[in-house]
Structure formats: structure tokens, C-alpha cells
Amino acid sequence: MHIQQDQDSIIIRCENSLDYLDISEINTLAFSSPNEAKLVELIRKSDRYLSELSLVAERDGKVVGHILYSYIDLVGQETFTVLGLAPLAVHPQFQRQGIGTALVKSSLEIANDQQEALVIVLGDPQFYNPPSAP
Ligand SMILES: CC(C)(COP(=O)(O)OP(=O)(O)OC[C@H]1O[C@@H](n2cnc3c(N)ncnc32)[C@H](O)[C@@H]1OP(=O)(O)O)[C@@H](O)C(=O)NCCC(=O)NCCS
Asked: Candidates 2.40.30.60, 2.60.120.280, 1.20.58.480, 3.40.630.30; correct CATH number of 2-128?
């Protein structure tokens, strides 16, 4: 998937094992902590990992952003398995250029195509539901 942004083109594609080091670095830098990079590694090893919804954003051949979803269970009288969005990270040098938005939009399109019923996210409403959102 290509997203044209002004002069720059962002490619959104599924992650592969060659991206793992870059993804780890981006998460560590973006969150100023190794915890989210470790979470990504744990999810990848689990049966909750969704390869088709683990995406990277590439600009000029460089991985600059990453998004990952995993299945989580909402447990009550019934159990519903839904998508959890986390973590989402953009390299600090590439933030505020629309890359996070592109990763969210592309991944939600895939989730929608897969007829996933619900996505849960904990995050800043300024990013996930900005005033300019339709
Ligand atoms: C949050 C994050 C993924 C956003 O990625 P990004 O590529 O910078 O986001 P975009 O450029 O698509 O931002 C679109 C809009 O969202 C809002 N926004 C972006 N980053 C934001 C932030 N950190 N906090 C609040 N609002 C934010 C702004 O309104 C922005 O529009 P503007 O630049 O015209 O003001 C990125 O800042 C990041 O990696 N942060 C550290 C990790 C993190 O917090 N991840 C999310 C966990 S819920």
C-alpha cells in the first residue's frame, strides 16, 4: 500500500523478520523505554499475534513507524475476542508528518476487510480522535 504525502511517499506494508531490529529501536525511542519493544516481541511469540495486522511504515527505504494489534478477550457472561491496538510508534525524527495516522488508517482498513467487529485502544484522544476527524 502506497500513501502519497506531498513530495514524500510512505509505504505501509506487513512487517517481516528483517524489520525486527528497526521496530525494536523505534519503539524504544518513541516510548523512551524498552517496555513496548519487549511487548512486541512477546506478542509475536504468542498465539494472539496477527501477521497481517503488524505493519511498518517505510520512507525512502527506511522503517520509520510500526503498528501492532493482538487478539484480546473481553470476558463476562460470554467471552468476546476483539482486536487490541498496541503499541503504535513513530520514530521521533519522523513524528507529526502523518505517519501514525497512515498506519492507523491502513490497519483499520485491513481489520474492516477481515470483518473484525471491534478494536480497543487506550491512548491520547488528541491523536486517536482529533477535532478534525470526520
Ligand atoms: C502518537 C504517535 C504514534 C503519533 O504519530 P505521528 O506520526 O507523529 O502522528 P501524525 O503525524 O499522524 O499526527 C496526526 C495528529 O494527531 C495529533 N497528535 C500526534 N501526535 C500526538 C501526540 N503525541 N499526542 C497528542 N496528539 C498527537 C495531532 O493533532 C496531529 O496533527 P498535527 O501534527 O497536524 O497537529 C507518535 O507521536 C509516537 O510514536 N509517540 C510515542 C509513542 C506513543 O505515544 N504511541 C501511542 C500510544 S497510544
From this structure: 3.40.630.30
